[in-house]
Amino acid sequence: MKKQIIILFFTFVGFETVSAQQDAQYTQYMYNTLVVNPAYAGSRGVFSIGALHRSQWVGLDGAPTTQTLNFHTPVSKRVGIGLSIINDEIGNGTIQDNYFDAAFSYTIPTSDEGKLSFGLKAGGHFLNIDFSKLRNYGAESNLPNIDNKFAPNFGAGVYYIIKQFYVGLSVPNFLRTEHFDNSNTNSSSLLAEERMNIYFITGYVFDLNPNLKLKPATLVKVEQGAPLQIDVSASFLINEKFSLGSAYRWNAAVSALFGVQLSDQFMLGLAYDREVTDLGATRFNDGSFEIFLRYEFLTRYKKVITPRFF
Q1: pLDDT > 90: what percent of the chain?
Q2: Considering only CA atoms, which of 96, 49, 85, 87 is closest in space to residue 67?
Q3: Nearest to 129, CA basis, from 54, 191, 194
Q4: Torsions phi, psi of 34, nearest 5?
Q5: I need a surface site. Which of 29, 205, 215, 282 has the fewest CB within 10 A?
Q6: SS3 92
Q7: CA 138 from centroid of its chain's CA atoms
């Protein structure tokens, strides 16, 4: 079973061929918005810290894992700032991506409740590929390593919000980064390529009764050369404390979502994915898990987060 990761790994990186690396995916994207849209920075109205861990295809040795950490806060009525850090790993360190991005947002009131935010982000990532670690799986490779190569990038987004509705459009990374096989003078020998992704997010909160809310949400990701990704979810918020829902990633996975507001400041979210592809039917794949934690520094003037559900 452990050697199954070799098949999957070379599916991702190929044999001496071009490989396009997609951004990490999240089931709880509705709580991790800053990673994909810099215009979200400061929209919670307080200093907010969020951390997420994702273990994909649990039971498959060397399967992808992702960790994110983000901070964001308003610094004035119209300006917000943020910082996000992502660690994405495949093959127990064979491929490791570390992203660092700073975000800036500027908000324009459009009505008594509506706000339109424009965001910019700048940063980059370190890519490390160590093919020698494939020996741990009984495989050899003559592909050259990439040793923590840094690639700068920048992105932008817009985000509109009213009391019960939000919508956003963003391009987190504009620059197309190519990592070449330096041991080969032929520049077409490409190991990895970062491509531009376009994200569209939206959601609406329905007040079913004073103690129950329903929020459908959608994320659409478009990337040249990759399948269209569509995530749809629906969650209930019970007594402003518990959230329970499900999600579907088009032709990929079904998910269960659970969250609890442990206090006015601290929130916990959990998610479980099950593949609907042939990979999900294999006995070495126990699904994918996510855990999300958020802590917010409230003051006596800002006891309630509006909107609380996104």
Answers
A1: 53
A2: 87
A3: 191
A4: -60, -30
A5: 282
A6: coil
A7: 32
